[in-house]
Amino acid sequence: MKALIVQEGKTVALKDHPVPPVGDDDILVKTVALAQNPTDWKFVDFVQKAGTILGCDWSGYVVQAGKNVTTPKVGDHVAGFVQGGTYTDGGAYAEYIRTSAELSWVVPEGTVSHEQAATLGCAFWTAVQALYHPTRLGLVEPPAKVDKEQWVFVYGGSSSVGQYAIQLAHLSGYKVATTASPRNFELVKSLGADVVFDYKDPDVVSKIKAATGDSIKDALDTISLVDSQALSARVIAPGGGTLVLLLAPKPEAKVRDDVKVFRTSRLPLLVFLVTVTNCICSHPHLHGAWPHLLSGP
């Protein structure tokens, strides 16, 4: 098969590569569509495991299943994600991908295309974990809704994770405040943001507090650099709250002692996330936002 292989010298090459063997609990998938993530180039530039297959997000058809696998079945349309740039026999940027069957999900017929399903990977599960996992923000999961007015702040609403986070929080009944560049204001509003502000505005923190009644207790920073971490902590109401980052906390960005800071896990509870994916992917509000998600900001 052809696969995109990490090379020495911070580069990649499309090469012939052995089709991965299928274990008793695995499936082999013929890929149809793949999606890109920032982690892909970061694994090339910073991790540099030469000989590994790059890529995380994929969608395709099952062509072989291990003897212990009861679902999915050969012929099923499935999607999922793997840790690309890590293994010589596992990565999404290839004609075939081998993965544990329980870390894939069967795409409900008539819901989303291969291209759309491939995007329900890293960005989506990162947003799911950040918002809903009990060790992160622990918000109310859809289809249930929060029973009172409650604000959630998302820094970087037009990023891939940010777009999913806005939709998910909206589906859960939360009011969403976010930041973006002015050119993306209408995009994030169309996805469910109630208020949006220019992250470069020197008065952005005071404006967010005014719009939300200075009531924010839960925040997600999808950029997770020094400035974004500090701003996200500042918008949280007096008395403190919780801030979830995608990257490791920056010590120099700590501006408050009453804000608990967590990062999304590199190896989350994948079965939990795949289950949530199955439940949410066919929701009409999320499904209706696909044109925005696929075209990007």
Automatic annotation (TrEMBL):
<dbReference type="InterPro" id="IPR013149">
    <property type="entry name" value="ADH-like_C"/>
</dbReference>
<feature type="domain" description="Enoyl reductase (ER)">
    <location>
        <begin position="9"/>
        <end position="277"/>
    </location>
</feature>
<dbReference type="Pfam" id="PF08240">
    <property type="entry name" value="ADH_N"/>
</dbReference>
<dbReference type="InterPro" id="IPR047122">
    <property type="entry name" value="Trans-enoyl_RdTase-like"/>
</dbReference>
<dbReference type="InterPro" id="IPR020843">
    <property type="entry name" value="ER"/>
</dbReference>
<dbReference type="InterPro" id="IPR011032">
    <property type="entry name" value="GroES-like_sf"/>
</dbReference>
<dbReference type="GO" id="GO:0016651">
    <property type="term" value="F:oxidoreductase activity, acting on NAD(P)H"/>
</dbReference>
<dbReference type="InterPro" id="IPR036291">
    <property type="entry name" value="NAD(P)-bd_dom_sf"/>
</dbReference>
<dbReference type="Pfam" id="PF00107">
    <property type="entry name" value="ADH_zinc_N"/>
</dbReference>
<dbReference type="InterPro" id="IPR013154">
    <property type="entry name" value="ADH-like_N"/>
</dbReference>
<protein>
    <submittedName>
        <fullName>GroES-like protein</fullName>
    </submittedName>
</protein>
